[in-house]
User: Which sequence fits this backbone?
């Protein structure tokens, strides 16, 4: 337990001191990206990991919060109004998503969320009078809460870090709460949970709302980071990217989605520096992870670590029988 | 008057293309219980491979129909390989299978971009079908009518295959109850490969046949996959009649939506799907709820 505390402390210090040891603004920006994508991945993980519902439409929700922010700013509202409206729009869209897609689980849920995500993408792409179509919407200024301007990479990083830490803390509480336990119950034994008197549909619906809130938060951070939003953000590729973050890191773990987000953002940034073929790599990693390490990197390496640890500590115990069939 | 007539013909043509695309999707879904997310990529691959021969990118040109058959066979082989080498390794794990098809679709899209570049390829209308047919005051491109004929012939062929042959009976048994089909001695996993290859081939054929109308461009896969999805959700999985009726309906909605409500075309397209999901989750002619 103390080892875990020490690791957490080191991680915290490392995160807080990023602007001091990173070699330049570019890398600080990459760190900000990792943090808000990690929030996004944590949000999707509520469904994929803890509820057992795989959504392929989350980029649509991420994008709709981003569009709502950009649109509100464009028609002249202030930052706080834009952010509040974006959160409401994000959660309300998630509620609509949930009502439609929670009619089924498993493959049905995937198909419905995929189709809903495509609708949002199609609307962003075609409803030009509202969204500007392919030209997207520009966001001219980042907000300055309490006179703390977010224009520089450092200040933006710290704001994202605070929101990220809050989200991680909230997720930790969520997972350990009775509600988290009942959600995992509906994932593993929906019928038994139903028989025990739990309202399975309602539990899943609330989980969707939690997921929608985190997704909307990350969408707002995203639009303030890039200061631009276009339909590309809502495409199926983006939904698949964030799903890859969750699955590659390890769905249903707290640390997994964050590791996955770091992995995907770093690989994407590094690779696109000298290679245009990011999508090919994304697909290949996807296939490789699903076939070779379906439980994800964090649980996978934890398992390997435990195995190695046990071998190291108990070398004298019965040597493996040779010539076993 | 003319406008509506032309729009109607275009809708039926597009419905025919959608049927070629979605019939395989529906069979794969019905039998293997997974939405094959590479289906749009198979359509695009077929279009690109066929266009390579038709345009003569390899230094020689082939007859359109010969190119279409070659592309169909090549993509069908690719589909069979993907099923054998990748999906077969994850038996019964439908979620993992869906994710593999998703990963494959990204790889295929980037592969096409790498090989054929970003510029659209225009496929010439096959010789002899470039003209127009005059019916009273209206003028129809001959090729569009030809597509309707081809789609009808393929639909009849598929119906005969599924309804009148031993293989078709085995596939239907697999769709209805895979476990029971295994018990009576049908090698269902072998059917998976056959159906996957058949579906891939049909999608590729639709791709090259649609080439002269849609042209071939990066992103074609992303445009077609949602349509196949909508058709199958609307018509019901595993049902040939379902994908036929669904295709025609979606063909009409897509074309009329584009013409009358261009800004909301996508929204209009997905509305019937949502209605069906709410009122009849198994689809119009489907046998089981996904």
Assistant:
């Amino acid at each position: 337990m103390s080892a875990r505390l020490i690791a957490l402390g080191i991680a915290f210090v490392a995160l807080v001191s990023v602007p001091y040891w990173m070699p330049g603004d570019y890398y600080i920006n990459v760190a900000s990206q990792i943090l808000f994508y990690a929030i996004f991945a944590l949000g999707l993980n509520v469904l994929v990991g803890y509820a057992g519902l795989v959504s392929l439409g989350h980029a649509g929700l991420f994008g709709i919060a981003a569009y709502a922010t950009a649109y509100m700013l464009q028609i002249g509202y202030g930052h706080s109004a834009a952010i509040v409206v974006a959160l409401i729009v994000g959660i309300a869209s998630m509620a609509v998503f949930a009502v439609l897609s929670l009619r089924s689980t498993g493959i049905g849920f995937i198909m419905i969320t995929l189709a809903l995500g495509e609708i949002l993408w199609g609307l962003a792409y075609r409803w030009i009078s509202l969204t500007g179509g392919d030209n997207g919407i520009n966001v001219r200024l980042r907000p300055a809460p309490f006179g703390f301007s977010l224009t520089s990479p450092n200040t933006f990083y710290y704001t994202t870090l605070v929101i990220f830490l809050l989200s991680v803390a909230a997720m930790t509480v969520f997972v350990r709460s009775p509600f988290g336990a009942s959600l995992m119950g509906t994932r593993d034994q929906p019928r038994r949970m139903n028989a025990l008197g739990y309202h399975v549909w309602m539990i899943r619906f609330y989980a969707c709302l939690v997921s929608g809130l985190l997704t909307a938060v990350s969408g707002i951070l995203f639009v303030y980071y890039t200061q631009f939003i276009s339909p590309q953000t809502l495409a199926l590729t983006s939904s698949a990217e964030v799903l890859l973050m969750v699955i590659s890191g390890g769905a249903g773990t707290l640390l997994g989605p964050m590791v996955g987000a770091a992995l995907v953002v770093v690989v994407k940034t590094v690779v696109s520096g000298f290679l245009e073929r990011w999508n090919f790599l994304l697909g290949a990693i996807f296939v490789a992870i699903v076939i070779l390490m379906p439980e994800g990197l964090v649980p996978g390496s934890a398992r390997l670590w435990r195995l190695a640890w046990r071998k190291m500590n108990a070398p004298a115990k019965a040597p493996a029988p040779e010539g076993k069939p | 008057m003319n406008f509506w007539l032309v729009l109607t013909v275009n809708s039926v043509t597009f419905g025919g293309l959608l049927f070629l695309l979605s019939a395989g999707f529906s069979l794969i879904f019905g039998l293997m219980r997974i939405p094959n997310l590479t289906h749009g990529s198979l359509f695009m691959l077929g279009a690109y491979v066929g266009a390579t021969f038709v345009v003569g990118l390899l230094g020689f040109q082939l007859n359109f129909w010969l190119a279409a058959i070659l592309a169909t066979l090549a993509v069908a082989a690719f589909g069979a390989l993907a099923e054998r080498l990748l999906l077969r390794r994850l038996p019964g794990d439908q979620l993992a299978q869906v994710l593999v098809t998703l990963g494959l679709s990204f790889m295929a899209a980037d592969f096409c971009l790498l090989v054929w570049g970003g510029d659209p390829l225009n496929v010439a209308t096959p010789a002899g079908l470039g003209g127009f047919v005059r019916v009273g005051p209206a003028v129809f491109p001959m090729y569009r009518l030809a597509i309707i004929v081809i789609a009808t012939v393929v639909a009849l062929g598929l119906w005969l295959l599924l309804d009148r042959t031993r293989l078709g009976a085995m596939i239907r048994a697999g769709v209805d109850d895979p476990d029971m089909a295994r018990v009576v001695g049908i090698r269902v996993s072998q059917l998976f490969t056959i159906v996957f290859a058949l579906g891939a081939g049909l999608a590729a054929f639709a791709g090259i046949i649609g080439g002269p109308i849609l042209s071939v461009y990066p992103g074609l896969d992303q445009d077609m996959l949602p349509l196949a999805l909508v058709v199958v959700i609307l018509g019901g999985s595993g049902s040939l009649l379902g994908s036929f009726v669904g295709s025609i309906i979606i063909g009409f909605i897509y074309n009329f939506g584009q013409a009358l409500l261009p800004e909301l075309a996508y929204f209009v397209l997905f509305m019937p799907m949502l209605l069906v999901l709410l009122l009849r989750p198994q689809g119009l002619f489907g046998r089981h709820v996904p």
